[in-house]
Amino acid sequence: MRAMNNNYYGFGLPIDISTHGAAIDRLIIILHIFMVALFIGWGIFMIYSLIKFRARPGHKATYHLNHFKAPTYLELFVALFEAVLLVGFSFPIVNQFVNAKPDESTALKVRVVAEQFAWNVHYAGKDGIFGASKPELMKPGNPLGLDRSQEAAKDDIVAINQLHIPVHKPVIVELSSKDVIHSFFLPVMRVKQDTVPGQKIPVWFEATQTGNFEIACAQLCGLGHYRMRGFFTVDTQEDFDTWLDQMAPKPEV
Question: pLDDT value at position 2?
């Protein structure tokens, strides 16, 4: 395995290697600027209020409502700005991401099944057909319970904590869980999605550069949550094909 890239975590956001990440980063930056402005603005207002309304000789408390309207105007501005963020920025980003789902016939389809405490990654093999899984067949050597007696499952590839994808190719990942709720998180792809037992939830993304990164679980999923770290590798198409060949089940002699 190639060395893990350690330079994508820093003071700011992780590097963005996704086709859709720029819009998300822009929204995050706007939110942080707004939060800083609120922090400074309310801090100034608090200091001003402490000085203006301090107890001192010759001054009497006023009990009439609406004698100081600046806070009301500020609250209305904050509410209006938050509405603009939702309607003008957040909703369009989500809508664009959902509607831009790639064609399944041209995308790479991968299944990722979470469990305490690992990511089981399932590739369909050269036939492009996922083999069936059976709960009664699940064991340490067969975490997905693949029925290898079926023709479709004979060439299927299962990798634990290893997700490889080719660069510049849309990828559709079908997420599920064997036990509790986990959260599939690829920081450099700006992808985070809960995995829910009994549900199959698709997410998609496309990488713009190669490298070695991480899969994190962003949901506290048990005492071993800290160990649920996977490896996310973006290969060239040639390297990806080579890796698949190396991982393919060897024919029985």
Answer: 46
Looking at domain 108-247, which CATH architecture does it have?
Sandwich (2.60)
Distance separating alpha carbons of residues 35 and 48, to the nearest angstrom: 20
- What's residue 238's pLDDT? 95
> What pLDDT is recorded for position 121?
96
DSSP the chain: -PPPP-TT-SSSPPP--BSSHHHHHHHHHHHHHHHHHHHHHHHHHHHHHHHHT---TT------TTS--HHHHHHHHHHHHHHHIIIIIIHHHHHHHHHTPPPTTTSEEEEEEEETTEEEEEE-TTTT-PPPB-GGG-BTTBTT-B-TTSGGGTT-EEEESEEEEETTS-EEEEEEESSS-EEEEEGGGTEEEEE-BT--EEEEE-BSS-EEEEEEE-S--STTGGG--EEEEEE-HHHHHHHHHHHSPPPP-
pLDDT of residue 67: 59
Report the C-alpha gap between 178 and 72 in whole angstroms. Answer: 50
Mark the ranges of the chain whose per-residue pLDDT is less than 70: 1-11, 65-68, 70, 251-253
Per the rule left: phi > 0, alpha: psi between -120 and 50, beta: everything else, 190 is left
Indicate the burial class of 99 (C-beta count within 10 angstroms; 0-12, 13-18, 19 or more).
exposed
Give the pLDDT confidence of 122-176 residue by residue, as tens digits.
999 888 889 888 888 888 889 998 888 888 888 899 999 999 999 999 999 999 9
